[in-house]
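hi! just following up on the protien thing from before. the input was this:
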Amino acid sequence: RSLVLFAAMALLVGGTYTAFHTPVDVLPDLTAPTVVVLVEGPGMVPTDLEAQATFPIEASMNGAAGVRRVRSATAVGVAIIWVEFDWGQDILRARQIVTEKLTQSAPSLPPTVKAPYLAPISSVMGEILFISLESDKHTPLELRTIADTVVRRRLLAVPGVSQVIPTGGEQKQYQVQVDPRWLREYELSLRDVEITLAAANRNSSAGFHVTGGEEYLIQGIGRVRSEEEIGGVVIASRKGRPIFVRDIASVKVGAELKRGEGSHNGKPAVVIGIQKQPGTNTLELTKLVDETLTDIQRALPAGISIQRDLFRGADFIERALENLTRALRDGAILVAIIVILFLFNIRAALITLVALPLSLVASVLAMSWFGFTINSMTLGGLAIAIGELVDDAIIDVENVIRRLRENATLPDDKRRRAIDVVYRASAEIRSSVVFATIIVVLVFLPLMALTSIEGRLLRPLGFAYITSLLASLLVALTVTPVLCSFLLPRAKSILSGTEPWLSRHIKALYEPVLRLALKVPVLVVLTALVAVVGAGWKLSTAGRAFLPEFNEGALTINAVTIPGTSLEESNALGAALERLLLTVPEVASTSRRTGRSELDEHVQGVEAAEMDVRLQMKTRPKEEVLQEIRDKTTLMPGMNVTVGQPISHRIDHILSGVRANVAVKVFGDDLATLRALAKQVQAAMTGVDGVVDLSTEQQMDIPTLQVKVNAAKAARLGLQTGEAADMVETAYVGKEVSRVLEGQVSFPLVVRYGPQEKKSLQAIRDTLIDTPSGARVPLSS
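and the predicted 3d structure came back as:
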């Protein structure tokens, strides 16, 4: 008996310790091992990038060892490819396979496409926190620079953080904005400026100078560190007079061409998304990130604030833990009340309740051993099991009390030892308890056979339920009899030999009902059959869903306007939608990310925005609040708005790559035919009951100003068509020729025309193109 009690105490202590060190997450890891490949082709339109880069890479990935699915999305200048592997594959091995395939496909990629690279190891379910950087005193460029060089670097140093993605603000770069008129005046070209700046902005080493027993490194200092130094670089000499960069261009600190914007509560901000590494404890990591953000805030310039109320995955976990704690508390109280009422013995209630913590910590130990995390599903399994964890112990305790009472009424010479009575009483119901528990376990065993994402989601629930139930059986067979032998034999209510008054009255009421049922068994069976048929009919009419709708306390809203809309106009529409949402009383805050961040792993055009909306529920039901939000979003003309929740939104993305509960995909070769079919599909689904936020993915052609090079005329001038296109790209997009160091941070040095040079169509036609003969001709020729 002492050994059993010692083992129970060790289990309780060890299980509690393990519970505090088991990773905590919102949901089990639902993503199959996935490697994300990013491909950048500056200035390339989606059709060209898809044909020249996306398709060759996808073709090389298909058929690779362990690959189950390859998906891609392509936009202007960027393509993202998701390579999904079979469940259970090692992610590092998967990344090695993808790297090898990329090496094989690299020779087939055009020179205009940058070398593909892999995104960090993370998943869409790994977004644990969104914060914003805001200031009324600093410019968007200053905010984004601090976000990139201070906040992002500090957060990436936190153990467990895999990626930090800033959206919004303006990325800093040193711009040499060339005036084409002065190029003509001094007979120079953009190419001359590129070569000169690339050669001028570098240091060199010329060995060592040894003197007096010491050596000195000979270092040539050529790097530029300011706009003045860049402007002072000599490009050429005309009639003995040097021509400086400042003579033909304005040198300034400017903003890189951006394709994304961020805001918080309708005001411009830099929104920063923080993703965790797989298997990291979300609660512990969120705490570490919060502490780091507090340190960062103290070091930031006055006027810049970090807002942390945009989205927190830890909030949902904490609510789930609170719900489990409440369920445990209420379950324990109810069990104690019922046991005391029926057995009329506080000691019996305490013995029964011991099964709860022991069973739960045993389940946590098992989850830790088998690699499960504490999440919504495992907590759900424990919550479901709470009502049954004391069943076996109650049966055992009740039978022990009954036999001890009977033994107490016997003459002294016929009474058995208390420990013998406890042993025989436990042995009497042992087989019944074991078989009853096994039958319940068998009901949940099919969950363990589920595969794919359903298995990843529901297996943890079944595992937590089964292990806790088996642990309760083990407790009932070992710990419960031991505690009964210690605590019950000397209890006054047992030594009296009388049953509690509640049990006697219930038996008195039950006996006539039992006699009636035995006299007319046909009536009882017919009543049971009618009840079964009625229940079956109701079940057939019940709704079906993959998951119950979580009450996450937040919404994720996607808003898409017409493709071709500029970032400025799309940003203005998004801000108007935010202001509209903030008029709903239950909306506590909003944050928005319009377009795509430079580091984002999702292709989202500037016409699309994603909003995180935090709710503070009041007296109204959630359905009424959602209806008001949907009614208000219809006031935004030309926008398709989809309302969801953070977790369900991410699960939808994992299942189909589309952020919606139900996604219909139409495949084919002709895009115009696909669009027509998509409209027919949408029209067919419009009248279906329960369908809301119905929309077709916006894939319309965007307005394009095309520069088509006449191959014959270019050949007469000795030009390749690609060279002319490259010069146009340099003139209007800019070309990074070097980087300018500021302490430990570097910023791009870019050569381009000034913004006024593409304000009119004629200015673009007049762009000078250098020819191999030295002549410079306008683009229009």
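The longest strand covers residues 67-75.
The CA atoms of residues 769 and 777 lie 5 Å apart.
cheers
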